[in-house]
Amino acid sequence: MVSDSKRRIEVAAAGLLARHGYHGFGLKKLSEAAGLPYGSIYHHFPGGKEEIAVSAITGTGVLVGRMIRQAPGDVFGTAATLFDFMAAKLADTGWTDGCPVGTPALDGGSDVEAVRAACVSAFEAMAHGFAEMLTELGMAPGEARELATTVVAAYEGATILARVRRTDEPLHTVSSAMARLIRLSLAEAAAAEANSP
């Protein structure tokens, strides 16, 4: 069972990582954001900043992947919700808070191996959630993984464009494009299944 204080640290860290990346957030800012004494952070995370970042990034990937997998089979609604969530988040934060996985992946992901590995794991969890849903809808596993990777990559790219342009237009544009791609891919999978001996 994760303690309330530890959970507060992870949530605050995810927020700071989304805004500042790995190199841009410090433990003093984290202590303030979590509303906990500085010493409490090392009590829960003796490995310091790196351990906290890995925990927050991994936790984000697991949470999003689980949310995707638990959606009631509506891959279109699930994908749209993901893009809409980020559009609202960016607008609400003045275009400063991106993805708690994508932002540190760009800032620190290649410098610190544990952070890079956590980003890989988080992206995989997100893609796996979509791939499972697509497989359940009749797509071959390999094609489902490719399409799921495409959706996650498009989401992250649209998030970056929206953040730097300070408009949610890229997220809505890419969301619509992903819906068309998913629909076409599912139709092709159904046609291939119908034509198979």
Automatic annotation (TrEMBL):
Q: Which GO terms describe its molecular function?
A: DNA binding
In terms of Gene3D superfamilies, this protein maps to: Tetracycline Repressor, domain 2
Is Transcription regulation set as a keyword in this record? Answer: yes
Q: Does the keyword Protein transport apply?
A: no
Pfam families named in the record: TetR_C_13_2, TetR_N
Q: Which UniProt keywords apply?
A: DNA-binding, Transcription, Transcription regulation
What SUPFAM superfamilies would the database entry show? Homeodomain-like, Tetracyclin repressor-like, C-terminal domain
Residues annotated as DNA-binding are: 26-45
Residue ranges of every copy of the HTH tetR-type domain listed in the record: 3-63
Give the top-rank taxon of the lineage listed in the UniProt record for this protein. Bacteria
Full protein name? TetR/AcrR family transcriptional regulator
Q: What organism is listed for this UniProt entry?
A: Nocardia yunnanensis
